[in-house]
Structures are given as C-alpha cells and as structure tokens.
Amino acid sequence: AQSVTQLGSHVSVSEGALVLLRCNYSSSVPPYLFWYVQYPNQGLQLLLKYTSAATLVKGINGFEAEFKKSETSFHLTKPSAHMSDAAEYFCAVMENQGGKLIFGQGTELSVKP
Amino acid sequence: DTEVTQTPKHLVMGMTNKKSLKCEQHMGHRAMYWYKQKAKKPPELMFVYSYEKLSINESVPSRFSPECPNSSLLNLHLHALQPEDSALYLCASSQGAGSYGYTFGSGTRLTVV
C-alpha cells in the first residue's frame, strides 16, 4: 500500500528564513503526490502536485517541491517565510487503484517575527 | 465556479438528534468524498461516491449515512451520534482518480453534546 511519512510534526522558522518541510513516500510505482495547506478552522487548499511531468513543481504562495525518486522524497520548500505561512501542511499520495488520497500526519509550521 | 461549498459551517447537536450536512460543487466533478478530521490529525476518509454511486465505505458506523442525490450534491445524514464524533467534517470532489487531486470545502465543525 502506498503511504507518506512527514518528518517533524512541528517546524518553527523565523520570518524571512527558508522553509523546509519533509515528506517521504512509499510506493512501488511512480506516485501522484500532493501538498496541501490547512489554516485554522478551514478546509485544505492544494499547494502543488507532482504528476510525473516535471520533477521540480512550483505551487502557489511561493512554495515549490522537488520529486527525488532515488530518495523517495517530495520535500516542500519556500525561500523566505512569511507570517501568513503559519499553518498545518499535509503531504498526500494518491492510490493508483481506487483514487484514494492518503495523507501524512501533518507538519505544523510556526513563523516567528 | 471552482469551489466546494459546505453547510452549515458549525453544528451543535444532541445525541438523540437527527441532522444533515450538505456539500455542493458545480465543477462537473464526478467523484465526491466525505472526510472526518480530529484536532491535530490528518483527515480520515469516510465515504467515496463515484458517478453518484457509493464506491467506498471505510467501515463507518451506521449512525453516519451518506447520500448523493445528484452529481453536484452530497449529503451526510447524522443520527444518534456520540460525543467522540465531534470533529471537522470535510467534503471534497475530484475529476477522478490519478493526478487530479481533490478540491476541499471549508468543512462543518460538528459538536455532539
């Protein structure tokens, strides 16, 4: 079964610093991978997705992620954190059969002034 | 229209009440989903509807009863819930399996008293 593991349940950065949120996947076939963001008391918003077209994927709000097959990773980065980036971030993989979206445990990002 | 609309946003109900959650999308998506999310946890899949037919039931208790009256509308009927059922209930839709990802609504915050 496909799965994703997010390393670090909580990450804290200073405003203007690099944001790096880690995600590793487990899949025997090329997966479809996603990053979602959830602000308090809201639903999930799609940041970006990997669909095998390009290994470096650019998303909304200045985020990007790089698919590395050799490392089975899909880490999310942003060069300069903003206070408004504080939220919960979920990495997810789409099951090839049945189309179920499987989420990682989530990483809470805090941004310090 | 690129949104999934959920109503109500907040719901408080007693353990003997019957209530319904509503979800609507007008993006032409043919798959719709119900997720349950507890605080500080990832969303957990409850039900999947594909072309208005229930395709996945993740062993959800019968006090939760989904309904898909048409391709744009998804309901979740609630009856005799328990306090532990208090959570954020998220609806999502997608064009189908694979690379499309899901579009999520903002959720219904349910409190069972």
Query: What's the total count of β strands of chain A?
Result: 11
- Rounded radius of gyration of chain B (Å): 13 Å
Which of globular, elongated, flat, extended, rod-shaped describes the shape of chain A? globular
* Secondary-structure class of chain A: mainly beta
CA distance, first residue to last residue of chain A: 41 Å
Give the helix proportion of chain B (percent range): under 10%
Tell me, briefly, the overall form of chain B.
globular
Strand content of chain B: over 45%
Strand content of chain A: over 45%
Number of strands of chain B: 11
Count, helices of chain B: 0
Strand count, sense and barrel status of the largest sheet of chain B are: 7 strands, mixed
Low-confidence stretches of chain A: none
Largest sheet of chain A: 6 strands, mixed
Write the layout of secondary structure elements.
The complex is a heterodimer of chains A (113) and B (113).
Chain A: E1 3-7, E2 10-14, E3 19-26, E4 32-38, E5 44-50, E6 56-58, E7 64-68, E8 73-78, E9 87-94, E10 101-103, E11 107-112
Parallel strand pairs in A: 2-11
Antiparallel strand pairs in A: 1-3, 3-8, 4-5, 4-9, 6-7, 7-8, 9-10, 9-11
Chain B: E1 4-7, E2 10-13, E3 18-25, E4 31-37, E5 44-50, E6 53-57, E7 64-70, E8 73-79, E9 87-94, E10 103-104, E11 108-112
Parallel strand pairs in B: 2-11
Antiparallel strand pairs in B: 1-3, 3-8, 4-5, 4-9, 5-6, 7-8, 9-10, 9-11
How would you describe this structure to a colleague?
The complex is a heterodimer of chains A (113) and B (113). With 113 residues, chain A is mostly beta strands. Helix content of chain A is 0%, strand content 56%. Chain A contains no helices and eleven strands. By secondary structure, chain B is mostly beta strands. The model of chain B has no long low-confidence stretch (mean pLDDT 93). The chains are: A mainly beta (113), B mainly beta (113). Chain A binds chain B through residues 32, 34, 36, 41-46, 49, 51-52, 90, 94-96, 98-101, 103-106, 108, and chain B through 4, 6, 31, 33, 40-43, 45, 48, 50, 55-56, 88, 90, 92, 94, 96-99, 101-107, 109.
